[in-house]
């Protein structure tokens, strides 16, 4: 049984609600399915506004889903009331994109790291030991140099390391890392991603890694989910999708360099021309059809392609690959 199962998840935000106005919805997540085993890493990629953050926050149940199903450790938590979700909150954590706003500026590093342990009623002596160990694990050493510091006294990279230490100090079983390095200096990104990878692997933590940059996913990902306008357009084992991307959108994201190591093809990335569509009134049929070089008139613009398994574990939502 997978640790996490997500079935046809939808998160729609009502907009423009007025007395005489019909309710419209931003369909930020509009039918996404995937599974994650313990310790597995799923990279979620897609352009800005494709619904990645909303997906991550919904799966953590920080946002209430509109439809679909989320099952964690065999328990259906889709619509569970917040009051009954304490165990889920204690099993999960998030690493945020912005290390400058995600840490409370009035708290010391020691308190920032201790707080989740206090909530879990860990005794003071044990808390102190765990905090020191957490700092050592993210290489903020010697820990004594950091305990009494406030976030503004740290560099961006150091702050993100504190954010990582805080997310992992309670040994969650599942974390969402939302663009954890995109605001950091390019020179330290790979190092921080490797550190996240080694800690999640050491503690067997399942992870959803959200990024718009497919090249960074190769440091971590076992599986890849490609999102376009709220939809999962391709999903499968990371190497299989990179080696043989099937959806024209995925193909456009991955430059097909003739390199024997498929992960090296990720260095150059083309973005398909055109604008992502409106999530309030998405195009009929396949949402990518207005930008797709292989669009079949009368088919792709009429009917929405379902996500189907075309090779073992490799799914795509594209009429070019679905036998009728
Ligand atoms: N609370 C909300 N109310 C209304 N619309 C929202 C809300 N949150 C997100 N959206 C909209 O949902 C869509 C998806 O946003 P989301 O942040 O999930 O995308 P993303 O892929 O994570 O983008 P980025 O890479 O820029 O963070 C966007 O059009 C956004 O404006």
Overall description:
With 324 residues, the chain is of the alpha/beta class. It is 27% helix and 23% strand. The chain contains ten helices and twelve strands. The protein has helices spanning 52-59, 86-91, 109-119, 124-137, 144-147, 156-168, 186-202, 214-217, 238-243, 248-253, and strands at 4-15, 24-36, 41-45, 67-72, 75-76, 92-95, 174-178, 206-211, 223-228, 231-237, 308-311, 314-316. The chain has an eight-stranded mixed sheet with strand order 6-7-8-3-9-10-12-11. A four-stranded antiparallel sheet has the order 2-1-4-5. Strand 11 (308-311) and strand 12 form a beta hairpin. The longest helix has 17 residues, at 186-202. The structure holds adenosine-5'-triphosphate (ATP). Adenosine-5'-triphosphate (ATP) is lined by residues 13, 15, 26, 28, 46, 48-54, 212, 279.
Summarize the structure.
Residues 4-254 form the ABC transporter domain. The protein is an alpha/beta fold and 324 residues long.
